[in-house]
Amino acid sequence: MSASAPKAVAMLDVPEPSCCQSSASALALVRDGVITGEGPTASGRVHFSRSLDADDAALCARILTAAAVDGEPVSRAEAEVLFEINEAATERTDDGRFDDLLAKAIAHHAAAASGLSVPPRSVALSSATEIASWAPANARAVNSDVLQWVANQMRGKRPGSRALMTMVATLVGVTVLPLAQLPTMIDIGM
Length: 190
What we know:
A two-stranded parallel ribbon has the order 1-2. The protein has 8 helices and 2 strands, in the order H-E-H-H-E-H-H-H-H-H. Helices cover about 45% and strands about 5% of the residues.
């Protein structure tokens, strides 16, 4: 392999990202593999369509924490593909790793897009790092346009990740609102 050729992530035919856009493209390959059960992310193993397993979650984590993007905040394009993966994966066998990764990646994007400092991805997205140790504690610090984008991504979707719901509830300050108002703010499938 030449020095200019992209390295494969986890020895699959998925190029290692060199920027946030190529990271989003690599995540799109994972999404396509989740949807069809075929392709470079499923080669060499049994993978059913619409399922997300531990290998898929680990591959998403490796893509998002590749050396070339580790110091960059999670981009909107990457976050959108993660939401698409979440929606596509109706069967989960990853012990919640993808849900944790999704919540942390969305918080990382939301905080950075609001002008807040965020830790490197390898720290923020690690399963060993608690989201509360670095994510904004309430909506006052987060740009309202970013909050609206998160709400729009979740509106009308099937109920999803408990970790994501908790993170969103924290960002919008749900603890100070009556629970009856929550469904009007974000459609969480109730």
